[in-house]
Amino acid sequence: MTDAFTPQYLSTVCADLYLDLNGLAYKQQCWRPYICPFHLLLPLVQPGQTVLDVGCGSGVFLGLLAHERAISRGIGFDISAPAIAKAIGMSSRLRSPEILSFYVQEDHRHWPDGQYDVVSMIDVL
After folding, report:
1. Facing residues of 76 across strands?
2. What is the pLDDT of residues 20-74, one digit of tens each?
3. Using alpha carbons only, what angle is made at residue 94 by residues 91 and 95, rounded to the nearest 5 degrees?
4. DSSP string, 57-79
5. d(Cα 105, Cα 123) in Å, to the nearest integer?
6. DSSP, res 76
7. Whole-angstrom Cα distance, residue 31 to residue 92?
8. pTM above 0.85, yes or no
9. In terms of Cα–Cα distance, which of 122, 89, 124, 95 is closest to 19?
10. Antiparallel, parallel or unpaired: β 71-78 and 118-120
11. Do 122 and 53 touch, CB atoms closer than 8 A?
12. Least CB-packed of 7, 42, 101, 108 within 10 Å?
């Protein structure tokens, strides 16, 4: 990963990853790095780590990590089916889309099996 993460750079990456969206949905993804401190969070994840993103929304955090080749595996879940559809569409634009998995999880009692190096929960509470 580069030390030169800026909201502007990350917004450009999001613009490329979410090209299949239109209008406000597209702009929301492009503006996300300006309202969420991804530029501070991304360097905290070490190369090769596995990440579980709780309430991943449209998958921006995992998408940025995968784009920068910073993780070996990422799993994201959310209660919003439309958001997960956006995340799946985004992941198809990555060089290695197979490292990311997204799914709808409506029941808070069932969490993904496995161990993770990093668990994130951004803008959920």
Report:
1. 53, 102
2. 999 999 999 999 999 999 999 999 999 999 999 999 999 999 999 999 988 999 9
3. 145
4. TT-HHHHHHHHTT-EEEEEEEES
5. 17
6. E
7. 20
8. yes
9. 89
10. unpaired
11. yes
12. 108
